[in-house]
Amino acid sequence: MAWTRKILRVNLTQGTCSSEPLNMAWAAQYLGQRGLASKYLVSEIDPKVDPLSPENKLIYATGPLTGTMASTGGRYSVITKGPLTGVIACSNSGGYFGAELKSAGWDMLIFEGRSPQPVYLHIENEKATLLPADDLWGKTVWDTEGTLKKRHQDSLLRVSSIGRAGENQVLFAAIVNDLHRAAGRSGVGAVMGSKNLKAIAVRGTLGVGNIADPKAFMAAVTAGKKVLAENAVTGQGLPTYGTQVLMNVINEMGASPTRNHRDVQFEGARKISAEAMHEKRATDGRTHLVTNQACFGCTIACGRISRIDETHFSVQTKPEYWGANGGLEYESAWALGNANGVDDLEALQYANLLCNEDGMDPISFGATVGAVMELYELGVLTSEEIGLEAPFGSAAALCSLAEMTARGEGFGKIVGQGSKRLCTRYGRPELSMTVKGQEFPAYDGRALQGMGLAYATSNRGACHLRGYVVSSEVFGIPVKTDPRDTDGKPELLKAFQDATAVVDSSGLCVFTTFAWTLHDIQPQIQAACPGDWSLESLLAMGERIWNLERDFNLAAGITSKDDTLPPRLLTEPCKTGASKGMVAELGKMLPEYYSLRGWTPDGVPTTATRARLGL
């Protein structure tokens, strides 16, 4: 459907739920989901607010294509001020929750204040009720979802919740829906926990409607699905291997950050790759991968469902982890594996299950463990302080630290604050591989120059999905560029960032852009939504969203000094691979990027830029 034109505002302090009309003037400028919810957030909170205070707000938002027949139209986002970074946070999730929320008749949920006791929100179409959650507090995501389905006697109830990580204010706590899909980054789960909000349980039966031109929409959707099916990446690679198809590719070209970015190639990558997930184990004759899985409305089906080896040390006495469950994606496999030098596929899966079960971002968790292991090997941290031996490559340490962090026990409390705070605490802040406090994903900014610039300029801290120039630098999509070259990368990145803001605001998945350009997406938006959604207006909207986020961050205290990379990437060259001897050439690209953005040399949008974009 296009917009339902309704918002549910939940005041947790007062315990009230009220409906209000969607601001359609804003919708015409920001479309939905990431863009529109960000507009609401920046209009309603002080940018300098403490992210974990009642004054911060938490917004669940769908896009106009969420819940429609558009391929991948099942996305929703959670927008807030992030506690890990102190900047605007927008974390995107798939599964079925977003479509259910839309089918219940809501474009957005806005949570404000703090409940005096744990609560959850139950939504049945237009009826919304806050209910006690005292008995759910302390439960995992998995237990919470099961309990709520039984309580409401509805197996089709869709649940989005936090685990113990969110309750304990782990700064990279995630919000998990459908057991293993997550709004994973920037600590949105910690904000939810700070509000004593345990879960949202939704049942929507109102269905899909409000499409401006149904015939044109179905024609555009059908054409789009054909493009996805015929593309080698979205039609073959992702369904077969998932995002894990990247493990060997990125490693072989020397762009895989390894052992806290000391190296750019991991000798154990093959053992934890997509190919390894397809191989039969010697112990039980089963493959690690059980099947692929799709989110609502998705024709790609890149999700992984895996079964852990029951004889593995991590689960030998824990049968609750033996069943088929959410499997490793590329980012989680890298963060739990390469970043720590761990090549034990089953250990990675166990840690990944704990991240799903208790709601933690595996990227930030794994990368923080990488910092712990380097500090341990340097002698800065001791086994007495950590509670165990923690050298690079230790699968046992990885599993134990995952348990400790998820439960908020021992040294896990320190790990749960993220690598920036951890490394600063022990006097080695330069060993934190972060931008604006958020840990890097699975691409090295020295070997992929465009990604280095993408990390430095991302509005939500280090992130690959805000401007995935890997498509160009590795796959040649939409054009092939030399990953080691800085020429043209600022312009390329800006185009990716603006286009991605459009996709994130529509309700579609960014993975479609391996095959689609905005030329494929624009007809779907135009047919679904009344008004002018020309290619030009969409590109201007993407730029408007990026600058809106930048304005908020500047007001929150971010400056151009924060648009940088850790010293390791700027001064320590790649040791191996095609980019051997190279560092991230950020200084060559950043001034040009600011100029292309219409910003001052200090990274501030000019008056002319703000006027042009209607900010």
Give structural notes.
With 615 residues, this protein is of the alpha+beta class. The protein is built from 25 helices and 17 strands. It has a six-stranded mixed β-sheet with strand order 2-1-6-3-4-5, with helices on both faces. A six-stranded mixed β-sheet has the order 8-7-12-9-10-11. Strands 13-14-15 form a three-stranded antiparallel β-sheet, with helices on one face. It starts with 5 loop residues before the first strand and ends with a helix. Its cofactor is [4Fe-4S] cluster; tungstopterin. It comes from Candidatus Accumulibacter contiguus. InterPro entries: Ald_Fedxn_OxRdtase_dom2, Ald_Fedxn_OxRdtase_dom3, Ald_Fedxn_OxRdtase_N, Ald_Fedxn_OxRdtase_N_sf, OxRdtase_Ald_Fedxn_C, Tungsten_al_ferr_oxy-like_C, W-dependent_AOR. Keywords: 4Fe-4S, Iron, Iron-sulfur, Metal-binding, Oxidoreductase.
Strand content: 5-15%
Shape: globular
For the largest beta sheet, what order do the strands appear in spatially? 2-1-6-3-4-5
Extended strand count: 17
Which stretches of 5+ consecutive residues score pLDDT under 50?
A: none
The overall pLDDT, averaged over residues, is 97
Question: Could you say which structural class the secondary elements and strand pairing correspond to?
Answer: alpha+beta
Please report the distance between the alpha carbons of the first and last residues.
Answer: 28 Å
Global Rg:
22 Å
Tell me the helix content. 25-40%
